[in-house]
Amino acid sequence: MAAHSTAEIEQTFKISQEGGVTIFEPQVRQDGVQLFIANDGPLQLARPGNGGMRLLEYPDEKTAIADAVRLAEGMTRKHNCYNTGFSGAKLVVRCSEEVTPKSVDRLSLMEDCADALEALQGTVWTGCDLNTTGDDMDMLVDKTPYVLAGLGSKVDTNIATAMTTVGSILGLVDAHCIDINTQTFMVQGCGKVGMHVARTLVSLGAKKVLTCDISEERANIEGCTPLSSSENWYDQDVDFLVPCANSLAINERVLQRMPPPSFVVGATNQPFSSHAVRDAFDKNGALHIPESISSGGAIMADSIEWALPKLFRTVEPQLVYDWILDVSKAKSKELSLRAENEALNIKRVVDCVYEGSDTVPVGLRFPDWLRENGHEVQTE
């Protein structure tokens, strides 16, 4: 199906530009709610934008748009890292006035989102993100096909994301010739992704896994050591800092207070509050695996769902998770070795492990991995 003409899109959306990112704002039914669709690059069917729908309270429109732009650019890096077949996009829903993520009329919101995606005619796809759920996506997919969220499959995209974090950790363990049984971890954030990261680290035999969350009960994970309400995660002396919460949490205070970890690897999009803080962590020897590698599991699953929908719906989910872990482990290990296992070298060599758009999209490579590991493949 061809995309709508430029004139039709201009009639449907209020459109603005931030660098290479275009922001589309459709009309919505609810007062106190705004929807922004940020797409990094031109709209195209051959390589559509893909990014989840984030639902948060923002103090003003400018802040919400800035978040959408930042996240869309981050999604481009993720998609390019693994060549998923997509470009970067992000949907940001701004709640304001008396509306909160808990009180928003979700059915009405999903209807507005569906109308917007239909107007863009397959050039932008979405799925879950902060404060949006599988139930939301079920409502959305009833009204538009441009949804990638593991629907019709038993694959949990939260576990998929967690497996890139764990795979990236294991890649570093291999590259640095260390034993995970000797390593300590601080998992910051134990929500839909962080809890799976923490559980998996325990199952792999990590020496100690500290956990924390703004909802303290979520940090109570079997085999882990939750921080008390009087303890701060940034005061912990650990080998691995594993951020799995909101963006920009690693800030100047963390830099000043936290004993430098050996590694920073997590699921959080853009964990550092600024380039200066990231550079300071590098100088302190904290080797950071970029989130384009360590949190790309959901979009790797999306790549299968988009390219091989029948296989995605029928494959055993654990095989998808194992594949994601293997691919991210190899990429993390390659990056660290290219950097000679030095934190300061990561930025210089990271582009070397990104894949060009002329390579086979990662989802289409999944059947080869299945065959190599002795599994039957049915793609028809």
Strands, total number: 13
Helix content: 40-55%
CATH hierarchy, class of the largest domain: Alpha Beta
Q: Could you give the order of the helices and strands?
A: HEEEEEHEHEHHEHEEEHEHEHHHHHH
CATH topology of the largest domain: Rossmann fold
Would you identify the CATH H-level superfamily of the largest domain? NAD(P)-binding Rossmann-like Domain
Looking at the overall shape, the CATH architecture of the largest domain is 3-Layer(aba) Sandwich
How far apart are the first and last residues' alpha carbons, in Å?
Answer: 22 Å
Q: Judging from the principal axes of the Cα atoms, what is the shape?
A: globular
Uncertain spans, ≥5 residues at pLDDT below 50? Answer: none
Q: What would a concise description of this structure say?
A:
This protein is an alpha/beta fold and about 375 residues long. The protein has helices at about 5-10, 60-80, 105-120, 135-140, 155-175, 195-205, 250-255, 275-285, 290-295, 295-305, 310-315, 315-340, 345-350, 360-370, and strands spanning about 15-20, 20-25, 35-40, 50, 55, 85-95, 125, 185-190, 210, 225, 240-245, 265, 285-290. Helix 3 packs across helix 4 and helix 5 crosses helix 6.
